[in-house]
Amino acid sequence: MDKHITAPITKEVARTLKSGDYVYITGTIYTARDAAHKRMYDILQKGGELPIDIREQMIYYMGPSPAREGRPIGSAGPTTASRMDKYAPQLLNLGLGAMIGKGKRSQEVIDATVRNDAVYFAAVGGAGALLSKCITSSEVVAYKDLGTEAIRKLTVENFPVIVVIDSEGNNLYETAAKAYCTEK
Amino acid sequence: MIRAINVEEITKNIKEMCIEANHYLSPDMDAAMKRAEKEEKSPLGKQILGQLKENLKIASEETIPICQDTGMAVIFLEIGQDVHFEGGLLEDAVNEGVRQGYVDGYLRKSVVGDPLIRENTKDNTPAIIHTKIVSGDSVKIKVAPKGFGSENMSSVFMLKPAEGIEGVKNAVLTAVKDAGPNACPPMVVGVGIGGTFEKCALMAKEALTREIGEHSDIPYVKELEEELLTRINGLGIGPGGLGGTTTALAVNINTYPTHIAGLPVGVNICCHVNRHMVREI
């Protein structure tokens, strides 16, 4: 089912999204990938404060290619989410509303998604040029020294994603592959 | 006769090839993607393949890299033994080409200088360089920028000879199943059978640079490629891992003699952005 939502996202909205829904996101989202997650995790371990308030926010696992002159961003597709599995449950417990990436998640992440009424979206991997057209502005808001891995605040318009893991724990990667599997 | 080649020519070609490979998918990959879109049975899978087609169009028309992961630059050099390089070190010339390509071409710098300290080198060097000495007086350059979503899902299996061809099939299917959505399917599967631990991995990597639709010259290996492609597409993983009948576009297998005690199998997986370019100078 096609749905249009805005970002940030409340738990109420997250609960209406079901595994397999095709969703267009408009609003503000943040990027963070391996190095930024490690820094946030280390800060939390030491009892510090995160550089952004992540409550109800969406984190897009993405590190863009450099922007050419006059463009907000370069190529901007999702990276593999499982590398963030170590860090994601804690962020979800702190109120993170949604994650956007590609690929499988650990059971710990699925459990934390359900427990916190969050959602895991997949964007199409390897469609970085296409997805960049849905990003209208980009600003580094933390960890500038990390280059492509810095935390960016993005404005997105009708950014296309698919609900993979919903707040009930349904997992599209498992259900969809089974439907077309002929190999024993 | 010895032919002198100035290494500046290597730099210039590698620079251009890094930029080109990241913006324009090769004709064989492009054709395979279009065929897949026509044949895909899942409506969502078809939609995703349609998005990927649109993505390629935007990338080439607006000069935006096809994927933000513009890869670690893997360079194969087949050097004729009658070639003499002058003007500097060959390795430096290759890295300079990569540096210029990634900096001037607005490509992402994805290389860290030390695997554990992890500081970005900021120019995507060093490249991974494989050289082979062949006959003749020319240099064949293959540039294959490799993304790590799929690289991370690659494996080496040191099978026992008794496991035979069934063991090889299981190894390939296991690697693809484990990769699933992480490797950005539809994927290309490079397989190296035989040799040693490192040789099978290198053969698997080089197999990815083979044109889609070309098969091994060895009849049973060609059959194995076809059978594995059919069985991989029967796994149901589909485009983007969201279910469907297109999980791989090709299975390319290279083989080499091996030891009486071993059956090494390397499986190198590449996403649908299987960048590979060849030039001969």
The share of residues in extended strands of chain B comes to: 15-25%
CATH topology label of chain A: fumarase
**Overall domain count of chain A:** 1
Helix content estimate of chain B = 25-40%
CATH homologous superfamily name of chain A? Fe-S hydro-lyase, tartrate dehydratase beta-type, catalytic domain
Structural class of chain A: alpha/beta
Shape estimate of chain B: globular
Give the number of DSSP strands of chain B: 10
**Unreliable sequence segments of chain A:** none
User: Can you tell me the overall shape of chain A?
Assistant: globular
Quaternary assembly: heterodimer
Give the topology string of chain B: H per helix, E per strand. Answer: EHHHEEHEEHEHEHHEEE
Q: What integer is the average pLDDT of chain A? A: 96
In the predicted model, the low-confidence regions of chain B spanning at least 5 consecutive residues are none
Q: Taking Cα atoms only, what radius of gyration of chain B do you get, to the nearest Å?
A: 19 Å
User: How does the major sheet of chain A shape up?
Assistant: 5 strands, mixed, barrel
- Number-wise, the strands of chain A total 7
